[in-house]
Amino acid sequence: MALLEARDxxxxxxxxxxxxxxxxxxxxxxxxxxxxxxxxxxxxxxxTLFSLVDCWDGTVTFRGEDVTHDxxxxxxxxxxxxxxxxxxxxxxxxxxxxxRMGGYILxxxxxxxxxxxxxxxxxxxxxxxxQAGSMSGGQQQMLAIGRALMLDPELLLLDEPSxxxxxxxxxxxxxxxxxxxxxxxxxxxxxxxxxxxxxxSDRGYVLEMGENRFEDTGEVLLNDSKVGExxxxx
Length: 234
Ligand SMILES: Nc1ncnc2c1ncn2[C@@H]1O[C@H](COP(=O)(O)OP(=O)(O)OP(=O)(O)O)[C@@H](O)[C@H]1O
Ligand SMILES: [Mg+2]
Known about the structure:
Order of helices and strands: EEEHEEHEHHHHEHEHEEHH
Strand content: 25-35%
Radius of gyration: 17 Å
Keywords: Amino-acid transport, ATP-binding, Nucleotide-binding, Transport
Bound molecules: adenosine-5'-triphosphate, magnesium ion
Number of strands: 10
Number of helices: 10
CATH topology: Rossmann fold
CATH architecture: 3-Layer(aba) Sandwich
Pfam families: ABC_tran (PF00005)
InterPro entries: AAA+_ATPase, ABC_transporter-like_ATP-bd, ABC_transporter-like_CS, BCAA_Transport_ATP-bd_LivF, P-loop_NTPase
Strand order of the largest sheet: 6-7-8-3-9-10
Helix content: 25-40%
Family: Belongs to the ABC transporter superfamily.
Distance between the termini: 35 Å
Shape: globular
GO molecular function: ATP binding; ATP hydrolysis activity; branched-chain amino acid transmembrane transporter activity
Structural class: alpha/beta
């Protein structure tokens, strides 16, 4: 049994169906990437898994339990956390206040939770009093991930963690993701930097027009000529 199992998930907005029956698994020790063209439905799928978008058909199980229609707040409390593609920090709050908000479900989060995050991201400790909106894009992305880690998730959903970052910062963020995974957190992420992401992903899925197109190990997808040509820019 995988930690997360999405089966034949159908969802959309209003009466427009965007996800037409997608299936995805994430095991408890894995890093899994979802790649695919703009508008393929990657973000919509992530939001459906996290109950921000209604699941119209199919099922999502987490640790073997049906969570298809669970509330977002219950999912976070129970070990699944999500970092959105945009607007993922409170710009006018300080770094520490952002972290506290990340853990607000716990009431006043214990000191160890902050320490765990500061261990992963020393820059956040150095800047804990700084206003989040005044930090660089890379630092804000680290903070967004840090906020989600306040609840010590078993599964972290990341929508484009490297979006808009310079290449060396992309590598920094990816290194942190690997470190978090080594610290016993499964990762499901959407990535535009598909080649780089697949290099360190255990497995990957190619999504196109709301459907599964390819799935395999990161390595096989990277070396597949069709995937390369169509989705990795040759
Ligand atoms: N809130 C919304 N209301 C209506 N339609 C939406 C909404 N959000 C996304 N869509 C539509 O759903 C489709 C899939 O969008 P989605 O954002 O999931 O794609 P994506 O694969 O994440 O794209 P990108 O790579 O650009 O982030 C698109 O046609 C988009 O216009
Ligand atoms: Mg998206």
